Amino acid sequence: xxxxxxxxxxxxxxxxxxxxxxxxxxxxxxxxxxxxxxxxxxxxxxxxxxxxxxxxxxxxxxxxxxxxxxxxxxxxxxxxxxxxxxxxxxxxxxxxxxxxxxxxxxxxxxxxxxxxxxxxxxxxxxxxxxxxxxxxxxxxxxxxxxxxxxxxxxxxxxxxxxxxxxxxxxxxxxxxxxxxxxxxxxxxxxxxxxxxxxxxxxxxxxxxxxxxxxxxxxxxxxxxxxxxxxxxxxxxxxxxxxxxxxxxxxxxxxxxxxxxxxxxxxxxxxxxxxxxxxxxxxxxxxxxxxxxxxxxxxxxxxxxxxxxxxxxxxxxxxxxxxxxxxxxxxxxxxxxxxxxxxxxxxxxxxxxxxxxxxxxxxxxxxxxxxxxxxxxxxxxxxxxxxxxxxxxxxxxxxxxxxxxxxxxxxxxxxxxxxxxxxx
Length: 423
Description:
It is built from 14 helices and ten strands. It has helices spanning 2-11, 20-35, 39-53, 79-87, 117-122, 140-146, 167-171, 249-259, 282-288, 319-323, 359-368, 370-386, 390-408, 410-422; strands at 58-64, 67-70, 96-101, 185-186, 197-198, 226-234, 264-270, 304-309, 328-331, 350-351. The strands form three sheets. Strands 7-6-8-9-10 form a five-stranded parallel β-sheet. A three-stranded antiparallel β-sheet has the order 2-1-3. A two-stranded parallel ribbon has the order 4-5. Helix 1 (2-11) runs antiparallel to helix 13. Residues 418-423 have low confidence and may be disordered. Pfam families: Glyco_transf_90.
């Protein structure tokens, strides 16, 4: 089937070789398959009844005879979008069954990079008897102490932890995790703490209603844009308990903006009342941050040279749209998405630490180095427009499905090989 994928990719002008993320995501399962060829299929089959009983954002489906169909009655935000997407490449996907995650947050809390996790996956001392049902609240001590999820603030040199700068790690808005190594397709994950298999989000498909599209294209030249960093958005991020929100990226962004009004125009446009938990005073927070419950036109981003993308409940979903906007994107996140290998820091965007402590400094750099900043903006825009297309999303998604089907059917292939060897 890979020959058909190659023709599909060529026909749609997709990247051919640059899929290291897919290799990384499936590598643990290929390693396990050397000892237990049936592991992947067994875990999919084991997880399926749990999803059918109570999906909690997960869905099960099936590719069979060149068509895709759902195999449960669960609900997800993306049911229609996924069905439309899968239909475009179902003709060359081998028969297989899948589990896919419709929530923005990852689900598989299993760090295969830790020592002794290979035998733990094959022979867990304590198997997860309630997969996709783990609901720690808040999540700070769960991630830091119980599962040893320690996310570095910096990728190079000495570093502190970013755990206390992430709303997801502090008080995730959605949980329902599993601690066994289940094959689950998700839109994002925190590496290496989670082992979800990454796929493109429907936020990045122009034909999806979830795509944050603009009413009209940018027509303001770079030199006519205001030299400030702009952001508007909701208080999405995590459950608010008492005063913990001050550590959330979006609140932290506003705090920094108040200290630097000459280079930043940032504001919260709405408060997430449904995430106001124990000892949360929503009205006090709205007053403290002047949250007017009034959104701004999305096209206002065109007026500014600099934009920032920060995490919400997980990834924001805005990133590619911001890159295409004609402004320079400053990016802060703890999450991995399918395109991370392709979009390179200081070539396509400006990276910002999870706690945003270097944001003002890097805005000042961009203001002082306008030519270099403009070149980075142009490179990011061109790459997003020409490479990160709907067709490229399909090529990535279908490549994931081929690897998935190969592993799922490995148990049958191994059984057939054994039968031939004994006859």
